[in-house]
Amino acid sequence: MKTGKFFKSLLDYLILFLASVICAIALYNFAVAFNFPLTGFSGLAMILNYLFGLPMGITNIALNIPVAILCYKRIGKKFFWRSVFCTLVYSLATDYLAPLLPVYKGSMMLSALSSGVLGGFGYAIIYMRNASTGGTDFVSVYIKAIFPHISLGKILFFVDGLIVVAGGLIMQDVDGIMYGLIISYVTNTVIDKMMFGVNAGKLALVITEKGPEVAKAIDEVTERGATLVDVKGAYKMEPKQMVLCACNNKQMFLIETAIKKVDENAFTIILESNEVHGEGFDVTRIAG
Q1: pLDDT in tens, 171-183
Q2: Could you report how far apart the first and last alpha carbons of the chain are, in Å?
Q3: Per-domain residue ranges for the chain?
Q4: pTM for the full model?
């Protein structure tokens, strides 16, 4: 049992290592080359590098120490130590590993988009492994823990947007602010899609006189459970059932087909559901 936990933990840290390196590459090899104002503590480190020539990676570590201490109790021990690991790997990879790789010097827009997509991919993997790269991540996850109904991507975009604007103003680069905001928006959109898109799906509301039969048909084709609610039609005041079923996007066609076979007169409403939690659906937890 202990051996299994050890290898699972080892795999987690290996994935966190690779994801942290990906984030460093997104930063150094795509964003720094064009001096885009950056987000988070990387953005603050870039500002200090611009003003005083301080190394970005080491500065990032130094900035993280007081914030990490302040947020330690709220975010939890496991999340904290994994984040410390990611912060060290990310910072050292930015200073020593990423410079060994080719730096993209083509289109500024492509560079911004590539930085956003690659960074979003890396950060999402880190968050899904219950960790972060420190800095404003600590602050954002702290806010997320207090207000769980707000998506992490939106919190990150707001916090990072302030730093991007500050960096652009200090560097007197209005275009840089726009590119920095594009990077931030793309990054956090990718984070939200990767972390919570897996839980997105559809909700079918079926008004029928054959509720049990419809629910059984849905279960047979998708192995999804359904909920029956007694309702009454307002026109003829006849008793009916409403069948509620949450499913993923791919299963909705099968459900529609099954409903029609059981009751051609069924009134079906299909809604988009941003997140579905419960049996049969994955749950993404952050911090704690």
Answers
A1: 788 888 888 889 8
A2: 23
A3: 2-197, 200-273
A4: 0.67
